[in-house]
Amino acid sequence: MGRRLGVLALLFTMMCGAGLAQGIALDPTPPSRAQVLAFMTAMGVQQNVDRSLKNAQAKVKSTARASYKKANPDADEASLKKLDQVFDSTPLFGFEEISETIVSVYQKNLSASDVQAGIDFYTSEAGKRLLEKIPLIIRQSNESSTQMVQQKLEAYSDEITRKLEAFQAEMEKPRTAPTLKPKAGDNDSKTTDQKSK
Prior knowledge:
mainly alpha, 197 residues
C-alpha cells in the first residue's frame, strides 16, 4: 500500500512538472519592449550591433581616405583632416535607431517567459562564461572544420577521379557483338523436327 502511494505521488509530481513546463512553453504572453532589450543586452546583441556599425563606418572612412589620396597624391595633412571631419560629423546610425524592428521580431517569436528564462541564464555566471567563450569556440571550430573539410574534399576528389578513370576505361573497351545463344525451347523443337524427318 505504501509503495503504491509512493508510485502515485511520483506520477502526480511528474504530471504536475510536465504540466507546468507545458504551461510555460505555451505561454502566449509576448515579452515587453523593456524585457526584449534586457534580453538582447544580456546576450550582447546590442553591443555587437553597435560594434559592427562602428567598424563599418571606420571602413567606409578608411576607403574614402584611400580613394581621396589616390586621386589627390599631393593632398596635405590639413586636407585629409577635413575629409575625416566629414565622416566624424556624420555618425552612422546606432542600435537604438533599428531596435524597434529587432524588438518586434523577438516579440513575435518568443514569449515573456522564454525571454525571462534567457535573461536569467545569460546574466548567470554560466551564461556569461558561455558568451565569453562563444567567439573562441566558433573560431576554433571553424579552423578545425576547415582543415577536416579540406581533407575530406581531397579524399572525395581522389575517389571520384579514380572512379571516373575506371568508367572512362570501361567505355573505351572495344564493344563486341553479343553472341546469340539458342533458347532451350529452340533445341527441343529442332530435335522434334529431326525426329519427325
